[in-house]
Design goal:
Blueprint lengths: L3 H35 L2 E2 L7 E2 L3 H7 L2 H32 L6 H9 L6 H11 L6 H8 L14 H26 L3 H9 L4 H12 L1 H16 L3 H6 L11 H11 L3 H29 L4
Antiparallel strand pairs: 1-2
Length: about 290
Amino acid sequence: MVGPKGIRKAGIVALFLLPSAVPLAMFTIAPMVAAGWISLHSWNLQSPMRWIGLDNYTRLLGDADTRDALLHTLLFLALYLPLVYVCGLALAVAFNRRFPGRNLLRSMYFLPVVTSWVVVALTWKWLLNPANGLVNHLLGLAGIPGPGWWASPGWAIPSTVIASAWKDSGFVMVILLAGLQSIPEEYLEAARLDGASAWQSFWKVTFPLLTPSSYFVVMISLISGFQVFDQIYVMTGGGPAGASRPLVEEIYDLTFRYGDAGGASALSLLLFALILVVTVVQQRLQRRWVHYV
């Protein structure tokens, strides 16, 4: 049994947890419970809710628009994750060396991370404008015909991937740079004494010891990628002809365009379940490839 001291200790802990527990319950847990309840009803945000059980879930699982939105989201992730990681890693390795102006350049590359998504998306929409954008202009000077970018069904998602990787590479850089600076210099010195080249030293020593930081940025980028919305909504609006509409935009359209709050709640919970499954799988797989010092 818990004695008076245990109860007093639990009360003190609860008191210190209240400032974070109350907002968590109000703005995270309660909305999730409400979404679960709404997902079992047919509701257009105006008329009274009508109980329909799991019909929203069965309908969405067989819906072509939902399937296309999922495929668009997965395609975005397949392009975005490698690009943002490689760009962030390259920046981290470059800025791990000492040279004049290093701190200034670090700040400049991190600046897009704290910039509004609307500003970034509008900037890249102009840069990738098929008619008079700077990128196609430069490609034209080199004799390369520029693609249709966000106005083309085949290039709409890659266009948003480029903008997303450009904005998020600074965040990946900072995390990986911290990981690089935490690697003991003795390990790298031992590799050099054994005759390892710079590439062998990086691949055999640095990169394995960087896997904890890599795991963190991959998981954060993966969760963020599943919820991609802002940049696609601003740059393409899910078009052309729905060629770039992700799952979150499908949720938005179900709610505010079609008045199907029940279906939107069901899809949001299905997305949550998908992210949870992927996170659990990654958590288990990390034991095989993440190496701690």
